Amino acid sequence: MVIGSDPLVGDNSSSASADGAQPRLTRRSLPIALLRARESVMAKFRPMLAKHDMNEQQWRVIRILGEAGELDATELADRALVLAPSLTRMIKSLKTRKLIALRKDKQDGRRTLISITPAARQLIAEISPESLQIYRDLERSFGVEDMERLLDLLEAVVKA
Amino acid sequence: MVIGSDPLVGDNSSSASADGAQPRLTRRSLPIALLRARESVMAKFRPMLAKHDMNEQQWRVIRILGEAGELDATELADRALVLAPSLTRMIKSLKTRKLIALRKDKQDGRRTLISITPAARQLIAEISPESLQIYRDLERSFGVEDMERLLDLLEAVVKA
DNA sequence: ACTATTTGATTAACATGTTAAATAAAACCA
DNA sequence: TGGTTTTATTTAACATGTTAATCAAATAGT
């Protein structure tokens, strides 16, 4: 009998079976559900960002700096949810595009302090209204209450 | 007056201000909240997967094949939430590791049909109980009801 | 049958993700 | 003070993400 190409399970019930030894079905897997939701949401924003020659990571970095002002690299990486090596590479390209400015921390020579330029503020001013519009469309079709509930649960799962 | 390094906003209220032209504060931004939640959850699984020389994408591909049986590349990429070019590269490495087998679709010469090997089933049998344990710990600390609510909302936002 | 179009998969090029190692400056401490 | 440890950042190496281009096979339309 050939088992090599048979599915592990035959149905799609939402919980693991009694023996507990098979993988959680992907339909109700939290990591996959989070990824799918993220992809679905970002798909609505990406084309708009692309128009402005921005990817999502760059947009996160720029807007975090816009909100917080000057930050050191570690703090920025933390808040923008990018890894330090990624940020190092992004800094080079954003500096070339004159969207950020760098300076050394005089109190702590290890730290690089990063801030955005007026050009980046201009970019934020252009992107923000479009972003907000997309967000509001999403809120309208998803529901404001569900959006709030979802954000609360997402915040809670981070703390769990 | 220096404005180049001043924050765009001084507070962290959860909604955009009346003029509506500034970026949604990252705290209550759905894309960022989804990313943060995903990072937080995956951080619990990654070390376990690393023990088995698996990254999350490979684990998604293997378990999808384990559940569904043989799939063509497009269907697999779709279900495992990886892009086609990524899957192409992953296939090479997974084939080298003898975790998957490939064959041409005889009805449609364009399609590559992919299935997992017994070795991959063995791997799934090793990883699944550990994965389930981590998942149950998360459920315990997050709450089963909230988990269900969150999964429902994530499913809903994909459809929105 | 023949061409044009569509589709499945791969390749290319560049960006970020991920882990480990290297580097330099700061903090610690005997 | 001098040596060790910690911390901030960068580099390296390899994997995946992303978009566009390419290629081959199937389909559609004439």
SSE succession of chain A: HHEHHEEHH
Counting copies of identical and different chains, the oligomeric state is homodimer
Mean pLDDT of chain A: 87
Strand ordering within the main sheet of chain A: 1-3-2
Radius of gyration of chain A: 21 Å
Q: Say how many strands of chain A there are.
A: 3
Shape of chain A: globular
Q: Assess the beta-strand content of chain A as a share of residues.
A: 5-15%
The level of helicity of chain A is: 55-70%
Please give a structural write-up.
The structure is a homodimer of 160-residue chains. With 160 residues, chain A is mostly helical. The first copy, chain A, contains six helices and three strands; from the N terminus they run H-H-E-H-H-E-E-H-H. Chain A has helices spanning 30-51, 56-68, 73-80, 84-96, 118-142, 144-159; strands at residues 71-72, 100-104, 112-116. In chain A, a hairpin with a 7-residue loop joins strand 2 and strand 3 (112-116). In chain A, helix 1 packs across helix 5 (118-142). The longest helix of chain A has 25 residues, at 118-142. The termini of chain A are far apart. At the A-B interface, helix 1, helix 2, helix 5 and helix 6 of A face helix 1, helix 2, helix 5 and helix 6 of B. The structure holds a DNA duplex (30 and 30 nucleotides).
